[in-house]
Amino acid sequence: MFARRVMVVGTGYVGLTTGACLASLGHEVVCADIDTAKVERLRRGVVDIVEPGLSELVSEQTSAGRLSFVVGNSAALASFEEGRSPEVVFLCVPTPMGAGGVADLRAVESVMEEVGASLAPGTVVVNKSTVPVGTAERTAEMLERADIGVVSNPEFLREGSAVKDFLGPDRIVVGSDNQDAAERVAALYARLGAPTVLTDAASAELMKYAANCFLAMKLSYVNAMAELCERVGADIADVTEGIGYDRRIGQAFLSPGPGWGGSCLPKDTHALLQVADAADFEFRLLRATIDTNTRQRQRIVDKVRLAVTGKRTGSLSRVRLCLLGLTFKAGTDDLRDSPALAIAALLRQAGAELVGFDPAFVDGPEALKFRDGEPAPSEVEGVPLAADAVSAAQGAEAVLVLTEWAQFRSLDWSVMAAAMKRPIVVDTRNVVDPATLRRAGLTAVGLGRRTDF
Ligand code: UGA
Asked: What residue intervals traverse the membrane (predicted)?
């Protein structure tokens, strides 16, 4: 394997993982960022992102001399020795959704303006961020240089397992209209031995959306199936286990929940709808996937209403509810597009009084890593936070389990029951054993579960 000289622009979640992991594969990596304080922290081995194994990898690779951090793109480019300029430049800059659902490519543009003219002939520019179809083409136009190859190399990292996903990928996708550039990028990953899809730029760009939208569709399907299970007296856990043995379906990503959220699935489903609209294609399946997800939040509220009042139209006014878990999934402090917060907003609109608890927002040593020593906030988007689950449950008429933190499973549910005003647990992730809840004198309401009937 040839070690390559790589420059990574942007040290966010994707850029830092890419830089540290490529260095661990033996490449010489310089990461550029415009944030001076952040670069200084990274040089000291301080990583702001909570990702298992990332800060260790950054420290290890920095000490090994394969990874360094520089303020500014031009300075990063200049940091390579004379005649040894970077062979590959990864763009890992934000591409937020701009007006009309079109991704804002100003960050890509400004990087190209700044360093485009200074890149050595034969350099390959790689788009790593999730970008709309056509970005590689636009990047090539911005560059106005036929001697630079532009490649799309989407990442498929999950929050909470980014390093593992990067170093053990299901596949590598490399798309370019320049075959040689694509092969050079694919070679960077050769040591991983992963199946590699070499394709054109538009297909690679579309593939990222296609994957995330398929995953979203799988979850909307499971959530709808859980609802059907409730109506026909079937059990979603058995149904998903049974269908999951079919290798064409697979066991993963089949857990029902309060709806999918986070910074990727919601953004990408909407973006692909825009792509379809712009191409004059009515993507009904994708629209139904999104609508099912929006409806799922209301469905949880309806379940709570029925469980607490005994009526479909009962009032939740002044009903105290305890929310366990506010992040978009367990193992993160990320609240972006969190279904838990969407449900909290609906419950508040219905007049309920909420108290939350989330293991990411307490002062314990485990949670502190999320905030670099900062004290825990006292509220999250209008939901006051308690220091522990039992305090949050004090006087509650129901406890809602909204994220799948493992510690909710092992809570002392008799102590929880003693603290509550009424013994109802609505487990939107089906994570707590219903028999344990029942032994504690609690009524368990899950999603699509036979044990609840
Ligand atoms: C997702 C994809 O899984 C990654 O492959 C992709 O690279 C990433 O988006 C991205 O585009 O950057 P992530 O947003 O970190 O990763 O989260 P997931 O673990 O996929 O979870 C997404 C949502 O689905 C969460 O709200 C989660 O709670 C929910 N979910 C997941 C379920 O409700 N049930 C499941 O069985 C799995």
From this structure: none
Closest atom, ligand 1, to C-alpha of 403: 28
Ligand 1, atom 23: closest residue by C-alpha: 260
254 lines ligand 1 (CB under 6 A): yes
- The per-residue pLDDT for range 379-436, each reduced to its tens digit, is 999 999 999 999 999 999 999 999 999 999 999 999 999 999 999 999 999 999 999 9
Q: ipTM value of the model?
A: 0.97
17 lines ligand 1 (CB under 6 A): no
Q: What is the distance between the alpha carbons of residues 427 and 57, in angstroms, rounded to a whole number?
A: 37
**Helix, strand, coil % in the chain, rounded to nearest 5:** 45, 15, 40
Check residue 369 and give its pLDDT.
62
- Contact 154 CB / ligand 1 (< 6 Å): no
Q: Which CATH class is domain 219-452?
A: alpha beta
Residues 4 and 43 sit within 8 Å (Cβ to Cβ)? no
Q: What gap in Å lies between CA 436 and CA 68, rounded to an integer?
A: 51
Q: Is 402 in the pocket of ligand 1 (CB under 6 A)?
A: no
Spell out the domain ranges in the chain: 5-198, 219-452
Tell me which CATH homologous superfamily contains domain 5-198.
NAD(P)-binding Rossmann-like Domain (3.40.50.720)
Answer yes or no: is the C-beta of 434 below 6 A from any ligand 1 atom: no
Tell me the whole-structure pTM to 2 decimals.
Answer: 0.94
Q: Determine which residue's CA is closest to atom 10 belonging to ligand 1.
A: 264
Q: What is the DSSP letter of 394?
A: T
Let me know if the fold of 5-198 is the same as that of 219-452: yes
The number of residues making up the chain comes to: 453
Query: 213 an active-site residue?
Result: no
Kindly report the protein residue whose alpha carbon is nearest to atom 9 of ligand 1.
264
Residue nearest to atom 13 of ligand 1 (CA): 158
